[in-house]
């Protein structure tokens, strides 16, 4: 499809995000849309955000675990952009009014110390670019009605990115086996999910390599200080007002997200 169509679809998704009103799947309303078109739609939204003064502060890889691929009916990863407005502080109330139908995923976040540019990046090069890792909770949200999404829909919708909460204890990447780090996810004190880093393409590091090589072909470099979310270690769980969600990772510690009723980060629920 042409650039004009990309712009129209991007504006529809931007309007849905602003109004908190979901739209029908773009794969249904534009049946000719390809994955390449969907990424072009995503980039148009990122361009709008950056023109509005926001900065890209990282990337996310989605649909990397078998559980998430089964849950959303897709068979390959995707990626999206993390904008500065998506980052929330641990423990402070996050207003649910800024989302449509949010869910939470536990992830092992990479923070980069050096640029990482593909294609051709291997695991050793990816490791050498990592400063440290953190436990993280990603808030995913869909501007597509009722989460009726396929790969094209979620790619166009910036990989269903909604928000990020990072833990506060950095851990050297060599201090933990990323594959074997187990996670217990609790909501209001009840266990709602378990998993391990190996659920993410065999290792979260593989997701970082995949991302660097995939965006590198588009001329994009993963920058120092950027946060990379490699994908969830278990299926996403929905959240509601008043929920407190904690991910406890072996060797990494914990991270908690608390959901209130307000729209501004930091206000009392």
UniProtKB/TrEMBL annotation:
InterPro entries named in the record: Fumarylacetoacetase-like_C, Fumarylacetoacetase_C_sf, Hydratase-Decarb/MhpD_sf
Keyword Ligase attached: no
Annotated Fumarylacetoacetase-like C-terminal domain residues: 102-258
Record keywords, A-Z: Lyase
Lyase in keyword set: yes
UniProt cross-references to Gene3D superfamilies, sorted A to Z: Fumarylacetoacetase-like, C-terminal domain
Top-level taxon: Bacteria
Pfam family of the protein (one): FAA_hydrolase
Signal peptide feature range: none
A molecular-function term among this protein's GO annotations: 2-oxopent-4-enoate hydratase activity
GO CC terms of this entry: cytoplasm
Classification via PANTHER family: 2-KETO-4-PENTENOATE HYDRATASE (PTHR30143:SF0), ACID HYDRATASE (PTHR30143)
Protein name (database record): 2-keto-4-pentenoate hydratase
UniProt source species: Streptomyces montanus
Upper taxonomic lineage: Bacteria, Bacillati, Actinomycetota, Actinomycetes, Kitasatosporales
